[in-house]
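Dear colleagues,

As part of the handover before I leave the project, I'm documenting each prediction I ran so the next person doesn't have to rerun anything. This entry is a single chain, and its sequence is reproduced below.
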Amino acid sequence: MATPASRGTTGHEPAYFPDGDQAFGHDEGPWEEWNPTEESVRPVRGRHRVGKQRGGFARSSTVLGVGVIAAVGAGGIATAKDRPPVPISMPDLSGVTESLPDAESLPGVGSLISDSDEAAGAEDLSGVTQATAAGGAPVAQLSGEQQAASADAGEALRSRIMQQAESKQDQAAAAEQAAAADAAVKAAAEEAEAQQSEAERKAAEAKRKAEEEAKRKAEAERLAKLARSFTAPLSSYTISTVFGQAGSMWSSGYHTGLDFAAPTGTPIKSIHSGTVKEAGWSGSYGYRTVIELDDGTELAYNHQSSMSVSVGQEVKTGDVIGRVGSTGNSTGPHLHFEVKSGGELIDPGAWLRGKGVSI
């Protein structure tokens, strides 16, 4: 049953169009390339219309498949992922397949077939077949001689890379050896400098010790010489009062000399050679003798019980100049010995020790 095209098709009935031609009912042309579009396959009442709108004919499912292949080969439609799937219901056109043209005569399809033949023939190229890499780029498969040449080139490249690597290693080893040599030289120089500094320090220390030893020996010799010219004022005594000791019994408030306690009448000797400057009574000092040395130092011997020298007399070391007593301001027999240097009273004990006299 024929119905207007605007109402669509049902079952397996052929579709009719306003121009009065029944689809696939005759071989009238001309034949044109047909590309399905969204408008041509728009669903109507839950079904889809398949037809030619500009004086053409609706095609069978075979023609539609060939047309799609041709359109894809020509790059004329979008991919399936760009559009939603559209169901198409087609009538049974098995009876009209004999009236369809050959696929090779369709526009675009013949070129695809010829291109496939050429591609098949291309496999017979001498020794080289074309393959497609994963990225779409052609990869050439070489012949035996070409593979051997490529292997030789690769081996040469590998050898050159290895030579460069060995050269870099040799340079690094040489640099490391040079650095180690420089470090060794520097360490040796520092060690030598340290040894030299240590040797100089030891030499300076030895020199200092030698000088100190020489000074000590010189001082010992000087003291020994002085000891021969200086002596203690008494041969036997006891130190009873030292210089500077405080006390109310002394007018100055402190003791001005060094007291040698000894029995009355014990001989008093001249400590060093000199000239008698004073000899006689001297108030609180009792009998007193003063001897002046060559350097101007004055030695005073006080509280004597008797005197053996007079003023202006020259005396020598060890000469007896008087005897121990307790005259003047005295609490018992003793020799009160004083030393004046530069007009000032000094410690007699320190002065005697400085002259080599042990007390």
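Residues 144-229 form the longest helix (86 residues). The chain has four helices and 14 strands.

All the best with the project,
I.
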